[in-house]
Specification:
4 helices, single chain, globular, three-stranded antiparallel beta sheet, alpha+beta
């Protein structure tokens, strides 16, 4: 299985970063400035000077951040992306406290 299918996509990873998810993972997206090509690397320190990096979370990493049990449909190809979408929805949802203030 390709690494790209085992970690969160670049777009989802960027969105998680925007939402304040701590950037700690085994793998990192590195998007080369000149070409725009995205590569997934294991050691971000050696590339952070030549390309912007963002965490490429594995399924277990993103599941730990999500912090809840999730039933995964059988036809899901990338579990990391599935978890990431659930986490984005959770982080983007208005809190119950702010909903009470609007009533």
């Amino acid at each position: 299985m390709k690494l790209e299918n085992q970690v969160t996509s670049l777009d989802l990873s960027k969105r998680l970063k925007e939402l304040g998810v701590k950037q700690e993972s085994l793998f990192w997206h590195c998007q080369w400035l000149e070409s725009g090509e995205n590569v997934i690397k294991y050691a971000p320190d050696s590339f952070s000077q030549v390309c912007p990096i963002v965490s490429a979370f594995t399924a277990s990493e993103i599941h730990a951040i999500l912090g809840e049990e999730v039933t995964i449909p059988k036809d899901i190809e990338n579990i990391s992306n599935y978890y990431a979408i659930r986490l984005i929805d959770k982080l983007s949802a208005p809190s119950k406290k702010s909903q009470k203030n609007t009533v």
